[in-house]
Design brief:
The strands form 3 sheets. Strands 2-4-3 form a 3-stranded antiparallel β-sheet. It has 460 residues and is mainly α. The chain contains 19 helices and 7 strands. Strand 3 and strand 4 form a beta hairpin.
Length: 460
């Protein structure tokens, strides 16, 4: 970790311990979560260093992003033996798209718990900056706003239906906790209100953050622009998705050359590589662990022989099963889900195509892919129509961003736009399916949270 960040942490250590002790009390018991009064000790972090130290708590702020979407997606499968070996029944229910009881309890930890724990920390920092009128806080405020928005955007892909302009004002959104006061009741606004808050936070963050930070564990202006592009892409606003992806690329656009990677390494892509805009990682739940999540053979075979991603991303075990090793964290401790440069290229390409600019769409795609193929072997992709361009870009998006926690959201928005994708899984001879736009695409909120808050559950 960067020395500057370490020094900040040391100076804010006492304040961090105080607030995290409080968080443990509030968040670990489901009967108190989102409902218990804030402790007066929250007033302790009164300096800029203390509040930066809170945001630098990577294990609380940038780890354990939701993995329920990946567990529900089509980019991996489990063998029957691995399915039987899952420790929790909830994981088995999630994997087979059951309607309810798909989250482990709060004591074990689940996606909801970790999401709102991180949001609470951002809210606490924003509260402290305002309450104590801390000077020179633009960077820290921007980080807190960006991190809150990023968590809500991630959560919206799990517990909300796809953003649909026809129903966005009535579809159930997320409880928007914007204050550390635990006495404020949790209610569910609309999906529109949820995205409005996400966009508001990100736009404000863009104006506050520097173009670059001391490390990719702090969101920068480029990070916030990248998440604005991601949000607008999910919303289907391709003009704005293009605008913000290009703005981000104008500030940072370096791609790795996969020819320089050692494909024999257990994890060829190194941690904190030049493409990482924010080093955020998913929670490693039972179904999505590297050792058990098998890549479909059809997907593996879709990579050409000269496409280096085939050897950088995958290894084949003695049973002929394909396993993923292309994690952007350089190892198996958390799957990368943060914004990256390659995602920016793909968002720009898709948005160009959606806006019927096939030439620039193909240029963006080819600029990315030439760095992924063996030197001298890449032949540029061409498309004669908008539809052909979009099909190519969608295929390459899946192949490039595998295991990044984005596929579930992509399937939801593709089906919203009429793709007609039906997901199927066969477990011990029984076939399960998830039809396009099924209500189960909004995963059930943990039942203990529904009972505690009285919020409506996602319709089934």
């Amino acid at each position: 970790m960067n020395t500057i960040i370490n020094k900040t942490r040391i100076k804010g250590y006492t304040a961090v311990l105080v607030i995290l002790a409080f968080l443990s009390t509030v968040l670990c018991g489901c009967n108190r979560f989102l409902d218990e009064k804030s402790d007066s000790n929250l007033a302790t972090p009164t300096t800029l260093e203390d509040n930066q130290a809170l945001l630098d708590r990577i294990s609380d702020v940038l780890s354990n992003f939701a993995s329920s979407g990946m567990a529900s997606s089509d980019e991996f499968y489990l063998s029957d033996a691995d399915f039987d070996a899952l420790e929790y029944q909830e994981d088995k229910r999630l994997y087979t798209w059951q309607k309810d009881y798909v989250s482990t309890n709060q004591g074990i930890g689940n996606d909801w718990f970790y999401c709102y724990k991180a949001i609470y920390i951002s809210n606490a920092v924003l509260h402290n900056l305002d309450t104590y009128a801390i000077p020179g806080a633009e960077n820290v405020r921007g980080q807190a706003l960006a991190l809150r928005a990023i968590r809500y955007l991630d959560a919206a892909q799990i517990w909300c239906l796809a953003y649909n302009t026809g129903t966005v004002s009535t579809d159930l959104g997320l409880p928007l906790r914007l204050d550390p006061d635990m006495n404020i009741p949790s209610v569910r606004p609309s999906v529109k209100q949820t995205y409005d808050q996400i966009l508001k936070d990100l736009h404000e963050a863009v104006d506050l953050l520097p173009a670059k930070q001391v490390a990719a564990t702090r969101p920068s202006k480029v990070t916030a622009l990248g998440y604005l592009a991601r949000a607008y892409l999910f919303m289907g606003d391709y003009e704005k998705a293009l605008n913000y992806s290009l703005q981000a690329l104008s500030l940072q656009n370096t791609l790795m050359d996969f020819n320089t990677l050692n494909t024999a390494d257990s994890y060829p892509i190194k941690d904190m590589n030049p493409e990482v805009l924010l080093r955020a990682t998913m929670r490693i739940s039972g179904p999505v662990r590297f050792a058990v999540a098998k890549v479909p053979l059809s997907l593996y075979k879709s990579y050409s022989a000269n496409d280096l991603r085939k050897s950088v991303y995958f290894r084949v075990n003695p049973n002929g099963e394909v396993l993923f090793k292309g994690n952007y964290t350089g190892g198996s401790t958390g799957k990368m889900t943060g914004a990256t440069i390659d995602e920016l290229y793909l968002m720009a390409a898709e948005s160009y195509a959606k806006n019927n600019d096939i030439t620039n769409a193909m240029k963006m795609l080819n600029d990315l892919l030439i760095t992924r193929w063996k030197t001298g072997t890449f032949i540029t992709f061409t498309a004669s129509s908008k539809e052909e361009a979009l099909q190519l870009i969608k295929e390459e998006r899946q192949k490039e961003l595998l295991f990044r926690g984005l596929r579930w959201a992509d399937i939801k928005r593709y089906n919203r736009d009429g793709a007609g994708i039906t997901l199927t899984r066969t477990v011990k001879g029984q076939t399960y399916s998830l039809t396009p736009n099924d209500l189960r695409y909004a995963i059930a909120i943990p039942e203990d949270i529904i009972k505690l808050t009285g919020m409506p559950q996602n319709p089934r």
